[in-house]
Amino acid sequence: MISAFNFPVAVWSWNFALAIVCGDAVIWKPSEKTPLTGLACQALFERAAQKFGDVPQGLSQLLIGGRDTGEALVNHSGVALISATGSTRMGREVGPAVARRFGRSLLELGGNNAVIVTPSADLDLAVRGILFAAVGTAGQRCTTTRRIIAHHSVRQALLQRLKTAYQALPIGNPLLSATLVGPLIDKASFDAMQQALQAAQAQGGSVFGGERALQDLFPDAYYVEPAIVDMPAQTEIVRHETFAPILYVMGYENFAEAIALQNAVPQGLSSAVFSNDLREAETFLSVAGSDCGIANVNIGTSGAEIGGAFGGEKETGGGRESGSDAWRGYMRRATNTVNYSTELPLAQGVRFDV
User: Fold this and answer.
1) Could you give all domains of the chain from N- to C-terminal order, each with its CATH number?
2) Which end of the chain is less crowded, N or C, counting CB atoms within 10 A of the terminal residue's CB?
């Protein structure tokens, strides 16, 4: 298992729990950005194993390292299943490498998640849902809302409400209960965010927020004000996932156009619609609607997926974790025939008498 920095315990836990229930040993390579979390989880497991006893030695093993460590794990013929969570770029390397040795992979990759806001939407509910999904974990969540597709009749009202809410966001130490927006993981993430905002401006966008925050208090950390970008269209930068709190806002005229915009990105993880029109909601959930692995109605793109099959389509990788049937991915499938007679029954009634 290879996990990313942003949910260093959750991804491990829902893979690890299913794997050991299915009788598998687990080798885990946590992100090189969060090695201490990996060491802590391994220590907790070893403590629990010692307490309950009769646990096979080596059931859980930890690999701390960088890219070369991950490559060794991916290319090892003794690892039947690689569960990898990370960027689409990583998935493009992991998937083919595992396939070359006819191994199996479970890929949880990028998301460029959109919320459609229709004329009948409850805007108070929509603002709350969008706010959490767009700025929670400082936009460093695979199900973060990154695009708003709002009907022209509600676009400006929604945009103003979001800007007002953004101005009131408490940014600071994530260990404090009053904080709603913590820091970006590192300088590279901050630089990527600034480059994306510059590109959005060059492509006709109007940027609100996005500046570095709390630099005087935390000079070595990268806190930012979450950004809203009013876009004239779904341009190249909008179609690209930037792992930071940037929310692109676009308009639409008819619902078919909104769904087309929603689906016209390479990623297909999570999606949502805010609407009190039953026909719109049903269309969004149907084969003619969202092409994502997660499709929600009147709730945001993140926060409601626990317990359901988690994963997406297209460049999101196609893998599914959690949910009622995810356990199948951690087991070897076999068809068995046991003959309890002294006869030799053959399939389709074939006779082969000598």
Assistant:
1) 2-109+317-330 (3.40.605.10), 113-297 (3.40.309.10)
2) C
Contact 111, 144 (CB under 8 A): yes
Residue 306 confidence (pLDDT): 66
Choice among 142, 241, 280, 292 that is catalytic? 142
Nearest to 303 by CA among 5, 2, 7, 70: 7
Give the position of tokens 């969540």: 141
- Tell me the C-alpha to C-alpha distance, in Å, between residue 260 and each of 88, 114, 228: 22, 11, 22
What is the four-CA torsion angle of 318, 324, 325, 330, rounded to 10 degrees?
A: 90
Which amino acid is residue 334, in one-letter code? A
Least confident window among 33-37, 248-252, 316-320, 344-348: 344-348
What backbone phi and psi angles, to 5 degrees, belong to 28? -115, 125
CA distances from 342 to 112, 347, 349 (A): 61, 16, 16
- Catalytic: 321? no
| Residues 151 and 117: beta-carbon distance below 8 Å | yes
**Selected catalytic residue, list 41, 108, 225, 280:** 108
pLDDT in tens, 171-214: 999 999 999 999 999 999 999 999 999 999 999 999 999 999 99
